[in-house]
Design goal:
Radius of gyration: 28 Å
Bound molecules: zinc ion
Strand content: 25-35%
Strand order of the largest sheet: 1-8-9-7-2-6
């Protein structure tokens, strides 16, 4: 058995050792795990003594990947880094029926992650490893894995490594999913085990090392081993409209929801009645026609374990707006609905590069030097866009686009767009950027 390495601490100098999996591992029989304890062992000033042996045994400090009887050096980072590391690993494993602790569980079966020292304390052939673990494509009872003290005070990088190494001992290999601890790919931290069928690999896709595993779903594998942990709800927020706002028939509702594993879907309730459901981001809805007056809107996000969370606002339904009346503040009227106007960041007509810069989530390219945030309009109807905008063709429908000399939005000095519009040739085809 050789080890699987964690991402290196010095980019570009990593040495990756990927042993072939053992020949025909025994078929996995559904059974309880050997232990539900992950012990994070902080190496004291005298270091952590480890013995070499054929079979890992955390109770006797026997490691199958140690070069001999060795001592892993002290973990030298401040107490706060340790506290943050332990909390982050606890959070990472919170969805599962496993306990993460930094208190020595004593002479009972447990998984152990030794934290400290440098990789050459363990063996000479992995000088650039951030961590290492034994690996068999299956659970290794009482496994000892390692997180080396090579990231400085970066608790989240230490956490990424400790989470990955411990999970190697549960049979998980590397995958290309950036948001998952099992990856080598950097980017935002912390990472969490995801309910996504991910391609195996380090920096490029490869076949998974373990037989009968076309892809790897880290969440499913770990929950399959330990069962679910205490339910933790997603976070959910209605980002538009604002609480207390006046709304017109057909107004848009935007919801933001996140979860440490995966949001399964978001449900929309109006006055307590289910009015829509969305399984994919963006969680955008169009309100049904409502009677004039007060209404409650609730967004309910449900995670993969069925745990719900909800956010609620109140709105007042009012008649459709027109170009000249019915909207508050700097809002403008599009097809009878008030939406944020050009004077608001990300509002209609705002200059943009990407969809997520627009409150409408729609940044369109009209063939002019600048792109603008747009809203959908009905080409056949007059006056559906606010003053200063025209409804121009956009695929099968139309989009409200800053009109030339409309005084809006600094539409740019390109002769092309305005010339086409001025000639009455409404042939701008807006290209969506997704
Ligand atoms: Zn690894």
């Amino acid at each position: 058995m050789l080890g699987l390495l964690a991402p290196a601490f010095a980019a570009g100098t990593i040495i990756r050792i990927h042993p072939p999996p053992p020949i025909a591992p025994p078929p996995k029989v559904a059974q309880a795990p050997s232990s539900n304890i992950i012990y994070l062992r902080r190496c004291p000033p005298g270091g952590c003594a480890v013995h070499a042996g054929q079979i890992d045994d955390s109770r006797t400090q026997t490691s199958s990947i140690a070069a001999g009887d060795v001592t892993i050096g002290q973990f030298t980072q401040p107490a706060q880094v340790w506290t943050d590391l332990v909390q982050c690993v606890k959070d990472t494993y919170a969805p599962y029926g496993v306990v993460v602790t930094d208190v020595d569980p004593g002479n009972v079966p447990h998984f152990e992650n030794i934290v400290g020292g440098s990789p050459t304390d363990l063996r000479s052939d992995i000088p650039n490893a951030g961590g290492v673990a034994p690996f068999t494509c299956d659970e290794i009872p009482n496994a000892i894995t390692y997180t080396f003290d090579v990231y400085g005070p970066d608790a989240l990088s230490l956490c990424w490594t400790a989470s990955q190494e411990t999970a190697h001992a549960f049979g998980l290999e590397h995958e290309l999913l950036q948001a998952d601890p099992m990856t080598y790919i950097g980017g935002s931290l912390p990472k969490r085990f995801r309910d996504i069928d991910a391609t195996c690999g380090e920096y490029t896709a490869r076949a998974c090392m373990c037989p009968a595993r076309p892809t790897q779903n880290s969440y499913r594998m770990i929950v399959g081993l330990f069962g679910p942990g205490a339910p933790s709800p997603p976070t959910v927020m209605i980002t538009s409209p604002a609480d207390g706002k006046s709304v017109q028939p057909g107004f848009p509702i935007a919801v933001a929801a996140t979860d440490d594993v995966r949001v399964d879907h978001v449900e929309l309730y109006i006055d307590g009645t289910l009015a829509g459901s969305a399984a994919m981001e963006p969680y955008d809805f169009t309100a049904p026609d409502l009677a004039l007056g007060a209404h409650t809107i609730e967004a309910r996000a449900i995670d993969v374990q069925g745990t719900p969370a909800s956010a609620m606002i109140g709105v007042t339904s009012v008649p459709p707006c027109t170009q000249t009346k019915g909207c508050e503040g700097t809002d403008v009227c599009v097809q009878g609905v008030c939406i944020p106007g050009p004077k608001q960041p990300g509002g209609l007509g705002a200059i943009c590069q990407m969809n997520d810069e627009c409150l409408s989530m729609n940044c369109a390219d009209g063939g002019e030097p600048l792109k603008h945030c747009v809203a959908t309009c009905d080409l056949g109807t007059k006056g559906v866009c606010p003053l200063g905008f025209s409804c121009v063709p956009d695929g099968a429908t139309g989009a409200c686009w800053p009109a030339p000399e409309g005084g809006c939005c600094d539409a740019g000095g390109s002769p092309r767009g305005p010339a086409l519009l001025a000639a009455g040739l409404l042939v701008l085809v807006l290209r969506r950027r997704r």
